[in-house]
Amino acid sequence: MRALVTGGAGFVGTNLILRLLEDGHDVVSIDNYSTGFKKNEQEGCRYWDYDLSSEMNPVLEMNEYDVIFHMAALARIQPSIKYPHKTILNNFVSSLNVLEAARKNNTQVIYAGSSTRHHGIFKSPYAWSKLSGEHLCELYSKVYDLNTSICRFYNVYGKYHIDSGDYATVLAIFERQWLNGESITVTNDGEQRRDFTHIDDIVEALVSIVGKDFRAEDFELGRGENFSINEIADCFGKDYPKEYLPERPGEYDMTLADSSKAKELLDWNPTKNVKEYIEEWIKYQRKTF
């Protein structure tokens, strides 16, 4: 199989490429390295440094892919509020260009959606831009009969997650702070609840869609179990120091996935538990001190 992974030097893209290479597939990556890293590049994958929001993209136009995994996006709510034009231009136009290239070559597209769809699409440019990509998938499926699927992610964590900067994930930040002996920073009162999904489970769902024929079918990729941010912080030690920060605009109280469709149509069963992951991660770090 020949696969194109957009955002292939990012968190999800890197783990997906590792799995595709392990399974013996031919893999190409497009990434502009705005949130991806050169250090994430994997031997055996061809990497191209291009901006997906540019209409003239020679890598997209190559008629050599069986599937496009469209993982590239400027993710996270807060940066999108600071940089709305940048976020919307990147996320919307990139998705449009990917789908247009797929239409020309009749290529399957698997799109990375977001759980923000359920929590107010007008609360942040990020939420709106990710839903706009879903609508584009539906448009191209209905008008051009293109094979598309939408996978909504729920607080993904694991190897290669980003631990600093505007696009860092909450669990990666906690890990970095714990390693550095810093206080764990919790926004608001910490009682907001999140459904956390391990990257291995996400990748398993993504590869299970390949070759299946869908028309903008949407899949919720979460465990169906959520925890408060305080509970997650307590996994690093109930007495470990915490610092509470003001509530941030655009955030929401709870995420909780209903993954029944993914289980039925993809035979997907997430196996990783976030609390067990943190416990094992701490044990490993203590062994290496």
Summarize the structure in words.
The protein has 289 residues and is α/β, with parallel strands linked by helices. It contains 10 helices and 13 strands. It has a domain at 2-158 and 197-225 and 256-271: NAD(P)-binding Rossmann-like Domain (Rossmann fold, 3-Layer(aba) Sandwich). The protein has helices at 11-22, 58-61, 77-82, 84-105, 125-144, 170-179, 199-209, 229-234, 260-266, 274-288, and strands at residues 2-6, 26-30, 46-48, 67-70, 108-114, 148-153, 156-157, 184-187, 193-195, 197-198, 215-221, 226-228, 242-245. Helix 5 (125-144) links the parallel strand 5 and strand 6 (148-153).
Shape: globular
Widest sheet: strand ordering: 3-2-1-4-5-6-11
CATH topology of the domain at 2-158 and 197-225 and 256-271: Rossmann fold
Biggest sheet: strands, sense, closure?
7 strands, parallel
CATH superfamily grouping of the domain at 2-158 and 197-225 and 256-271: NAD(P)-binding Rossmann-like Domain
Strand elements, count: 13
Report the portion of residues in β strands.
15-25%
Name the helix and strand elements from N-terminus to C-terminus, one letter apiece: EHEEHEHHEHEEHEEEHEEHEHH
The stretches of 5 or more residues where confidence is low (pLDDT under 50) are none
Helix share, percent? 25-40%
The CATH architecture term of the domain at 2-158 and 197-225 and 256-271 is 3-Layer(aba) Sandwich
Quick one: CATH class of the domain at 2-158 and 197-225 and 256-271?
Alpha Beta
The termini sit apart by 42 Å
Instruction: Report the mean per-residue pLDDT as an integer.
Output: 95
Q: How many helices?
A: 10
Radius of gyration: 19 Å
What would you call the structural class?
A: alpha/beta
